[in-house]
Specification:
By secondary structure, the protein is mostly helical. The chain is 79% helix and 0% strand. The chain has 12 helices and no strands. It is globular.
């Protein structure tokens, strides 16, 4: 007979392979085995959100929070769903609840930073991206690239370029590298360095999938 760990391991592989339908089936099976496990409900909500089935995602995430009100993965994913729906103030409050339980949750820090960026509050976005950088020990290229974007938008071009360079060094051929090259090019363009901007865009094209 299946045990929960085996089913969850299978679900994780299915999710990584993009087989979300099969992953959902596995998670539902896991819930048959452990119906009061909030992390399984949270994982199910996250996969529904990846499919853009936001109502189903919220249902699963709220089920997780009914079982464990301070469940950080459920709060973080619910914040992301609320942001997708345009409920930005509610998203901020939900991310804040996640951070009240785990101030070092990089996912919650990035989520609230993205929400403040959407709200146009770039100083707050910068603050939370910087905290996410610390929480990930400066080793997450996506965090560094996003931080570079808000710094560049605020006119801190040299600081932005440092972030982009660090992101490229960590992930020289991945998707974050493409974003960092593009951001780097935009920062150079904002600074009037048009030849450097063109060179960055060519570099992005070389590594783009």
């Amino acid at each position: 007979p299946d045990n929960v760990k085996m089913v969850l391991r299978r679900a994780a592989f299915q999710r990584a392979d993009g087989a979300r339908g099969e992953c959902i089936s596995s998670l539902l099976h896991a819930l048959e085995l452990e119906p009061r496990n909030p992390l399984i409900h949270a994982a199910l909500g996250a996969v529904y959100a990846e499919q853009n089935r936001l109502a189903k995602a919220k249902q699963a995430l709220r089920a997780a929070l009914d079982l464990e009100p301070n469940c950080v993965p459920a709060l973080t994913e619910l914040g992301s769903v609320l942001r997708k729906e345009g409920h930005l103030d509610d998203a901020v409050s939900t991310f804040q609840a996640a951070l009240a339980s785990d101030a070092q949750s990089s996912d919650a820090l990035v989520g609230i930073a993205l929400t403040f960026e959407t709200l146009g509050s770039l100083s707050s976005a910068t603050q939370f991206y910087q905290q996410a950088k610390v929480a990930t020990n400066g080793r997450d290229p996506a965090v560094l690239s996003n931080l570079g974007d808000v710094l560049a938008a605020r006119g801190f071009l040299d600081d932005a370029l440092q972030c982009y360079d660090a992101a490229i060094a960590l992930d020289p051929f991945g998707p974050s590298c493409v974003e960092a090259h593009l951001g780097r090019g935009l920062a150079h363009w904002r600074g009037g360095r048009f030849l450097e901007a063109e060179s960055c865009h060519r570099a992005a094209l070389k590594v783009a999938p």
